[in-house]
Amino acid sequence: MTRAPPSSRPAGHLLVEALIAQGVDTAFGVPGESFLAVLDGFHQHRDRIRFITCRHEGGAAFMAEAQGKLTGRPGICFVTRGPGATNASIGLHTAFQDSTPMVLFIGQVASDQRDREAFQELDYRQVFGPGTLGFAKWVGEVQDADRLPEYLSRAFHTALQGRPGPVVLVLPEDMLATPSAAPVLPRVEPATAWPAPGALRDVRRLLLTARYPFVIAGGSGWDGPACEALQRFAESWQLPVGCAFRCQDLFDNRHPNYAGDVGIGINPVLAERIRGADLVLAVGARLGEMTTGGYTLLKAPRPEQTLIHIHAGAEELGRVYAADLLLHASMQNAAKALDALSAPVTVPWVDWTASVHADYEANLVEEGAEPLDMAEVVKTIQRLSPADTLYTNGAGNYAGWLHRFLRYPGLQHHGRTQLAPTAGAMGYGVPAAVAAALLYPRRTVVNLAGDGDFLMTGQELATAAGHGVRRLISVVVDNGSYGTIRMHQERMYPGRVSGTGLFNPDFAALARAFGWRAHTIATTAAFEPAFDAALRSGMPTLLHLRLDPDVSTSRTTLTAIRRGAQGGHDDSST
Ligand SMILES: Cc1ncc(C[n+]2csc(CCOP(=O)(O)OP(=O)(O)O)c2C)c(N)n1
């Protein structure tokens, strides 16, 4: 059957049609005069795709990043030139570090104005290009309207293949207005790498030499079946599994083989266990600074443990660590292959796996703080929320209570339930929560934010209210400071507080001004009824928690840290 060629339409419309062909139904952005033809395309096809107008490009880019994390397909963000693009850069950097597929479209000055430093002109290949690795896997500029489908297809392939990540497509204003009759290209299905059979035999051989093996699951590119396969592999080999920094939903935290999160503020007992392991099998984790405790749990570049590293990006293998065995494979393929690896009848590390899990369970118990116990707050949130609730956070010590006390189910149960930046970007949690609530309106979304963190992107409360978001609760932990930095300050310069105090608004009044419900809470007892009412309200709700500024982490106080730094005794650690 021959398809009728499409009639000519502006390239801006062609771009929207091409996105629809990729299965995109939601895009995030802030408008600019540089891409009016695309906005007109969204209007033209408004019954099939929506453009979510945000209040800051940083918020829009975070939303697209969250969309990429949630769906496994590239998140879509549109911004205008210079100021829009630079505002969006935080989302790009986050997508890069988090290995999240995403396409950032940037309106560009008209071709006949290029290189004059025209209004808001930037050269995005220089700004975000591979020369400054850490922003984009590829930056393309579309000069010819008829080649737009080719560029978009390459953008999707590049974002999804190998180590997933962000791509930038630059769209000159005049190109977008040019008519084109080019057909759109089919939906991109990424090509994936498989582990070689010989390498799998080597995995088996190395595992059989171990006494204290440990598995770290991390990175992106996972799905339900892959997580299920990983769990079966862990069960048949009776291996303990820890989740890399902010990848805690990759392995069911309630499973008897679960060891805990291998990230910032790691359980010190778990850190010792990993140091003492004789084999580490890292599946999908990049083994970055946060997951390796600053390259100490696994000594760089040559770990003391036998190291097997499996990653989807060839360039990640051997980047830091000289491993004993490298496998280049996507997570789906790696998990399937591991699942098929026949286990011996008995393994010598059964007690080790049980005690690693017992350490994790013991770490869920804490002393209890007055008047507001954050551990109890997190436990209450999970107890009252539906099982498929999505949790989001940004950066700050407050997130440590989520990392330690929330028990994320594996992806095989409810898909992704954790949206959190491994890049450590403050301001991520609110827009990620808004994106999640827009994409999954039937699910409950809970955001935990610090007071510093929240106000970096709090304006996106308007985006949520404006788009009728209902099941979203933002819990703001107000300690009147950039607490994480204050903690480091007390360690390095005890008692010399500088640049870390915050003047805060009345967060509840602020939220109400955006059309949200809101409540201020100062005690543990007041939290449960307020959270329960928020869940039942069917309205977006902000819960403002007042936390004693001296409470630094789930393990220590500023007073203890200062005393330790001044030569006294502080036996706590974060
Ligand atoms: C965008 C961005 N700016 C600065 C930092 C450095 N930083 C990390 S944590 C932090 C303080 C976070 O404060 P808050 O949100 O109030 O949480 P708390 O640490 O007090 O729990 C800062 C400034 C960062 N990670 N991201």
Alpha-carbon distance between the termini?
Answer: 64 Å
**Overall geometric form:** globular
- Biggest sheet features: 6 strands, parallel
Q: What is the rounded Rg?
A: 24 Å
Kindly estimate the percentage of residues that lie in beta strands according to DSSP: 15-25%
Poorly predicted ranges (pLDDT <50, ≥5 residues)? Answer: none
Number of helices: 22
Q: How are the strands of the biggest sheet laid out side by side?
A: 3-2-4-5-7-6
Helix share of residues? 25-40%
DSSP E strands, number: 20
User: What's the mean pLDDT score?
Assistant: 96
Identify the bound ligands: thiamine diphosphate
Query: Which structural class matches the secondary elements?
Result: alpha/beta
What's the topology here?
Blueprint: E1 9-10, H1 11-21, E2 26-29, H2 36-44, E3 50-53, H3 57-71, E4 75-79, H4 82-97, E5 102-108, H5 124-128, E6 138-141, H6 148-160, E7 166-172, H7 173-177, E8 179-180, H8 197-209, E9 213-217, H9 224-237, E10 241-244, E11 258-262, H10 268-276, E12 279-283, E13 306-311, E14 325-328, H11 331-339, H12 350-363, H13 374-384, E15 390-393, H14 399-405, H15 411-414, E16 418-419, H16 429-439, E17 445-450, H17 451-457, H18 461-466, E18 472-478, H19 483-492, H20 507-513, E19 517-521, H21 524-537, E20 541-546, H22 558-565
This protein binds thiamine diphosphate (TPP).
State the main characteristics:
alpha/beta; six-stranded parallel beta sheet
Account of the protein in words:
With 574 residues, this protein is an alpha/beta fold. The chain has 22 helices and 20 strands. The chain has a 6-stranded parallel sheet, sandwiched between helices. Strands 11-10-9-12-13-14 form a 6-stranded parallel sheet, with helices on both faces. Helix 3 packs parallel to helix 4, helix 3 packs across helix 16 and helix 13 packs across helix 14. It is globular, with a radius of gyration of 24 Å. It starts with 8 loop residues before the first strand and ends in a 9-residue tail after the last helix. The chain binds thiamine diphosphate. The site of thiamine diphosphate (TPP) has 19 residues, from helix 17 and helix 19.
